[in-house]
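Input record (one chain):
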Amino acid sequence: MPLPWSYNLCYQEAVAVVLWEECEVMMAGACFALAFVLASLVEYWMHRLMHVSPRVGERHRDHHRRNEGQGVLGEFRDYIKGSGVVMCLMFFYSVSAGIGWFLGGLVYAAFSAYAHQLQHENPTKCFWMKMPVHYVHHKYGMWHHNFGLAVDWWDRVFGTYKPVEWLTDEELSQPSRGYLQLRWR
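The corresponding structure, as predicted from the sequence alone:
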């Protein structure tokens, strides 16, 4: 016995809703990944700009003199202040794209703030990189190399990655600390 037309219509609508929701989730996921990767690219180029521009790089030169981070939350605050407007732009396209894009930028800012502070205080814990590029950038005064903070991808892509034997007695003699034992404020 054939199903009544109303049941068929409800079934088709339910399938359409499920497909639409799957597309929305895929859109959010794609925007998350894209924002995460692009945030790392922007971070790389901003760091390079800070090394060539007297105006943009003034505060950064002080960071090199002090050779310390502001704490994870201080770094995070600065990253969000600098990218807050861009993080909201995809909401003009769609809510799901906006959520994915915003979260991708937010997660990268948190990861980068953590990685930056970790490399200043405990670089041996940067297990996701063979060499903690930001630590090496500071330790060896690499004004033209190793601009990545959280990742080394863009240094490799743009030819600014400069590997060095960085693990010396200085790093090996540091007391063992956990991944979260660093300055947060």
